[in-house]
């Protein structure tokens, strides 16, 4: 097989075979095929697209390029959830204990990553003592006993995807639906899930800002998952404004605790119930969405979801008393209100700009080397559609370092629009199933 022939075939709009795709991915992983040839192929894919079978083949070739997590020692159907990322997305912290409370095993591998706030692991590390350095035996035991554990990312998961993503970044080929869909799905499949619920965000704070593109990505990922034998479905949800009120690590842990108690923000609670119901159905703990939702609502009502969160934290060395006493979480030195400069209704809260303001406070990483301040962040006091009077607080800013505070305030004022009338966007835009 010759790489140049494969490039030519794709350039001419023909379909690549399973063997050809495997040849490219293996050759690129072991460095026998150079960047410049893979770049040419990526650009051809960008313009010519990929068929369903090519997408499935690319996904599986990337899965097979490194370690695959074996969850077979864990009883039951393991369902993973993946969000394409947004601002103040606290769902993972809530969904884990929530679905675990009704018997769904959650074996979660998570990362730190870049962004407006830390990843799930950073957030959980706001709980004193909590750690994710588990052996695979401890991980398996915790999931079997407590139905929930979180482990740090293995070093050699989908190395082909890491290399390809870096190359796409510098060859203007990131924005290709077949490449994005295979990239995301390869990581979920290598992490061992039997079934996958995807939360594809759309709006200013999302990777896919445009609804039509979000839908196309959701459909592409659902087809790949089902074609490679993992039951997959997607919810398309709004990320034009941040989810919930909290954006920041310790603040989001507190918000997760509130939500597990049944006292969380309406939008965050609803999204968790929708995503959670799909997880419960896919793991065959309920037959219908309605039945699953009722089980989850009962788990919140009875306190079982909150107890599950406490057991999970102590199981991984964390101080579970933070659940009853959130003052034990890291606290910022300064709390600053941002008063509205006019009256009316909130008509827009531009999610990505609010996220950037949180990052400037130190809640997230701008580069891999940045240090996160777990205590800082933002609490929205108003959401789109709410009435505001001049002088009302729009946001509480939690800060330690005040050197950039004026820049943060300016950014927030620019991100929050007040008009005569504002209407809350629909939270659940659509659902995509494999059927
Ligand atoms: N996120 C991923 O993991 N891969 C992509 O290609 C794009 C976003
Ligand atoms: Ca939030």
Protein architecture, described:
This protein is an alpha/beta fold and 435 residues long. It has 3 domains: 3-49, Transferase, Pyrimidine Nucleoside Phosphorylase, Chain A, domain 3, CATH 1.20.970.10; 79-325 and 429-433, Nucleoside phosphorylase/phosphoribosyltransferase catalytic domain (Pyrimidine Nucleoside Phosphorylase, Chain A, domain 2), CATH 3.40.1030.10; 330-419, Pyrimidine nucleoside phosphorylase-like, C-terminal domain (Aldehyde Oxidoreductase, domain 3, Alpha-Beta Complex). Helix content is 44%, strand content 16%. The chain has 16 helices and 13 strands. The chain has helices spanning 3-11, 18-29, 35-48, 52-63, 91-100, 120-124, 136-146, 159-169, 177-190, 211-227, 249-260, 266-282, 289-302, 304-315, 351-361, 405-415, and strands spanning 79-83, 106-110, 148-152, 195-202, 231-238, 246-248, 334-339, 344-349, 377-380, 387-388, 393-399, 416-419, 428-432. The strands form 4 sheets. It has a 4-stranded mixed sheet, with helices on both faces. Strands 6-9-11-7 form a 4-stranded antiparallel sheet. Strand 4 (195-202), helix 10 and strand 5 (231-238) form a beta-alpha-beta unit. Helix 2 runs parallel beside helix 4 and helix 5 packs across helix 12. The longest helix has 17 residues, at 211-227. Uracil binds at residues 165, 179-180, 183-184, 207.
